[in-house]
Write a structure and sequence with these properties.
The structure is a homodimer. The first copy, chain A, is α/β, with parallel strands linked by helices. Helices cover about 25% and strands about 25% of the residues of chain A. In chain A, the strands form three sheets. In chain A, strands 3, 4, 5, 6, 7, 14 and 15 form a seven-stranded mixed sheet that branches. In chain A, strands 10-9-8-11-12-13 form a six-stranded parallel sheet, sandwiched between helices. In chain A, helix 6 packs across helix 7.
Chain lengths: ~325, ~325
Amino acid sequence: MKNQRIVLASRPTGFPTVENFRLEEVDLTPLAEGEVRVRHHYLSLDPYMRGRMNEGKSYAEAQPLDQTMIGGTVGEVVESRHPRFAVGDRVVGMGGWQRYATARGEGELRKVDDSVIPLSAYLGAVGMPGMTAWYGLTQIITPRPGETVCVDAASGAVGSVVGQLAKLTGCRVVGIAGGADKCRYLTEELGFDAAIDYKAHPNAKSLYQALKATAPSGIDGHFENVGGTILDAVMLRMNAHGRIAVCGMISGYNGEPIPMAAPQLILVSRLKLQGFIVSEHMELWPTGLRELAEHVAAGRIKYRESIAEGLENAPQAFFDLLRGHNFGKQLVKLI
Amino acid sequence: MKNQRIVLASRPTGFPTVENFRLEEVDLTPLAEGEVRVRHHYLSLDPYMRGRMNEGKSYAEAQPLDQTMIGGTVGEVVESRHPRFAVGDRVVGMGGWQRYATARGEGELRKVDDSVIPLSAYLGAVGMPGMTAWYGLTQIITPRPGETVCVDAASGAVGSVVGQLAKLTGCRVVGIAGGADKCRYLTEELGFDAAIDYKAHPNAKSLYQALKATAPSGIDGHFENVGGTILDAVMLRMNAHGRIAVCGMISGYNGEPIPMAAPQLILVSRLKLQGFIVSEHMELWPTGLRELAEHVAAGRIKYRESIAEGLENAPQAFFDLLRGHNFGKQLVKLI
């Protein structure tokens, strides 16, 4: 039996290209005792993957060359030599950019129930992106009812959950997204109080004016997925003792870092900025995922997916994601 | 009876000059019921005063024009119409740049004991600077024994207490200061493990190399009094989950802010940066001041003072402070 996988062929300089990836066909070897074979239904594409493609200091190991690209996956067990996994089980794991994964069951796979919640949601609102939103909001921003919370990349897999959780907490929520469609989605479908199209604002000053109009009482908590000009503008609008959860700096991934224009605002407004990666806080996942699953099952948290078809289209879908062309959680359908 | 005071005559553009201040002689009016007259022994000069001289958004009210410059003072009660204050009492307050203050006793003055601890120390290690050090270290950096703590402006009133408190916690302590004398003072008199003369390092890269040599295990906690290049270099050397207490951004006070070169390190190293001003945390002062007083009385916290003589020399001493020419806590002796 054959497997298809995509490996990192070379490290990008600047924006990645198709040459950085290579699609390979490889034989599937027989399972060893304790191993499980998973046929992937969906692969998750996420901005963090861009960081892994670089060498050098990051919070995580660099993606090795000529190895299967890292990535979250959901699928079904098609063969098992592990007592706790049976053929047909639905599982979530870090299976990578490939059609089949061979996993050591314990620790690498988590069984999930797709009878109420669709399998793909375990890669989104009830998966790593949802937990990222949950952690940053509840553990760093710690919003109180009546406060104003801002989030950028707000229609994305993380941002949309941040905003909806903040609404459920009783906050005023302002979302920043790219384009009128995404902004309409935030206010009309997700219940955000206001949305700002950052593409309509050429600089931090203009964006600041939009924040002034939509966050008339200032911003108490901000969930940062983007960085750069957006962060500069939001910092100008933060209230005293505001909290900023730093989850993404996508603008800085391609080479040169983007300086923070006015770091003295950290002092002037007594801000807290805190970076985090959710995989370092596994002890909170059971609590967070249970809450998220309840909200999704009850329809209190909605989500949208952007689905590419076929492993061979994963690189292009990834580039679109980095450019913000996706709308909602970016997935690749593999069956 | 006459009082002498210095008022803010005009707001500076860039570095302040003598023209921004005006020395006035004014009559002392009779005390009203509940008021106390204090003859100042010492005036404290502090970097925050530069910020108050500006108009515009800051964490505190701007210093009003033609009013006595704000400032911490210690002195003795020379006349009292308040039942809890008697002539001869030693008191600390925000009496301002003047020889006599007229205070409403309750809330504006705090009686202190100068039998063990010298009166001037209540403006330094056992006063606002000491509390600033205590708060940033114990409430934001929260160091554990064996961790490495860094502090800049390290021979100053705040920095010297930060480093000594961190040593008492069992940390490795690296101080950054300007000049060989101050560096020698840190290691030989205050017990710092290492000192870096920032004047010997023309840029962040060079300073980073010095931090690499003196903090071989990286930096876990940093107390930021300066900002700019120093902060950039320290951030490069921070360990994962490092904490930075942001207390001063003196480089940014004179006009243009200094951008933060690599804010993505907040994410990469999962840092927490938190700005604070200690006067917003008065509930912790009794605890902090008690600890500081015990350490000072026992000789575990040492300090140095830089004393200018006479109110008329306060502006020049203030300029020297802003240029880092002082060595230890900057005071003006008023008797």
